[in-house]
Amino acid sequence: MTENELPLAPDDLTPEPKERQAHPFKTLKELLDHVSGKDLPPLSLEDNRQAEVLPFPFLAIVGQWEMKLALTLGLVNPNVGGILLVGPRGTAKTTAVRSLVDLLPQVERSACHYGCLPEDIEIGGLDAVCPDCAKKYGEGKSLTISDRVRLIELPLNAKLENVVGGLDERAAIHQRMRLRPGILAQADRNLLYIDEVNLLGDDVIDAILDAAAQGSYTLRRGPASATYRSRFLLIGSMNPEEGNLRPQIMDRFGLRVIVRGLDDAKERLEAYRRVQAYLNSPRQVIGSYAPDMAAVREELQETRQRLANVRISDRVAKEAIALTQKLGVDSLRAEITWFEAARAYAAANGRTRVKMTDLHAVAPMALRLRRSTFIDEYFEHQESEESELSKLIEPFARKNRKK
Fold it and tell me: Which member of 98, 333, 368, 371 is catalytic?
């Protein structure tokens, strides 16, 4: 029996192991639902003259469940392949992304200036790292340090040299040649956020997509060259009024969220009250959500650990694939994103086996905006050409078979 052919109980209802929770809620979803609807305590006016970065609490965002779910799934499983938020201005897209900073996990980073990692030694031996790291490895010392994942924002006016890097000007003053890594290298093992992604120049977006696809990129300036890691979760936002994305860019975003304004008048009023409270007393609002944010952060960590054991059976996967084929979706990234998002959703619900209900919950954001009218028309034209070619070639083939 292979790994993908797990024994299934009827309707995939095999009992899952129960784990002790630090809060009364059974799943991460229940916890998020509860906290998002809590009331704020009475607040006092603060002196806000200090220039501090105080992100609006993620759990204080009213409504927008699909957007919050997509971002949460991205934190659980970066293999969802990026997240695109599409919607009009003023719908909390950028606010939601920036509010993730207090929920970001810890990761192991290289402690070396050259970025040496233990995996380099596993692949290429001691010659694959610098002499200092080779010595540390031989002495049994760690080559990494634990650090919090960061949110790296790409400025809208970023030039290609800012993105990929270039020559270090300070070194050039001393007649030395040294490369300076760009934003893509800084984004390694972080979140890279691009606001108004549809307005970026083609050269910049192409460099980002290539680096995201390969997980690394090589920078060459004259005789100097260096290869930098660029493994990151790409998050983009855009207002469709300002222009569309090129198809190859759209295809690189796994989850696509349509962010609309709040329809419920009570929710709109509650959103206003929370924003007003935050503008008047940001520290108090952040402090009122701090215990719940800590609980969610701990739950996310447990969910990430559980994810490694989450499996999707062949039976469930084949049903899902049949749906993507019925929809006429050609890109294989559709299934990859859909299955990885469903695994994250199952893990968030405390399970280690994907059910059809998990696939159903994440299907819209994984499958929307994937069909192409142009490609459909192109294939129709190609089919007529193939049919004509077959008719012309068949007599020629019969004639040559007789010879």
Answer: 333
| pLDDT per residue as tens digits for the range 139-169 | 888 878 888 888 899 887 888 888 888 776 6
In a domain, 222, yes or no: no
pLDDT tens, position by position, 320-358 = 899 988 888 888 888 999 999 999 999 999 899 999 999
Distances (CA, A) of 377 to 248, 374, 391: 18, 5, 22
**Does residue 118 lie within any of the structural domains?**
yes
Strands (DSSP E) contained in 241-291 are: 255-258
- Bridge pairing between strands 224-229 and 151-153: unpaired
Euclidean distance between CA atoms 20 and 237, whole angstroms: 37
Question: Does residue 80 sit within a domain?
Answer: no
Which residues lie closer than 8 Å to 18 by C-beta, 6 or more apart?
A: 350
**Cα–Cα distance for residue pair 264/119, rounded to 1 Å:** 51
Which neighbouring-strand residues pair with 238? Answer: 86
User: Which domain covers residue 137, as residue numbers?
Assistant: 113-143
Residue 369: CB atoms within 10 Å: 15
Q: How many CB atoms lie within 10 A of CB 43?
A: 17
The total number of structural domains that make up the chain: 1
Distance between CA atoms of residues 205 and 214, nearest Å: 14
**Range among 37-41, 132-136, 167-171, 288-292 rated most confident:** 288-292
401 is catalytic: no
Q: What angle do CA 137, 142, 144 make, to 5 degrees?
A: 120
325-358 CB burial, b ≥16 within 10 A, e <16: eeeebbbebbbebbbbbbbbbbbbbbbbbbbeeb
Tell me if 301 is assigned to some domain: no
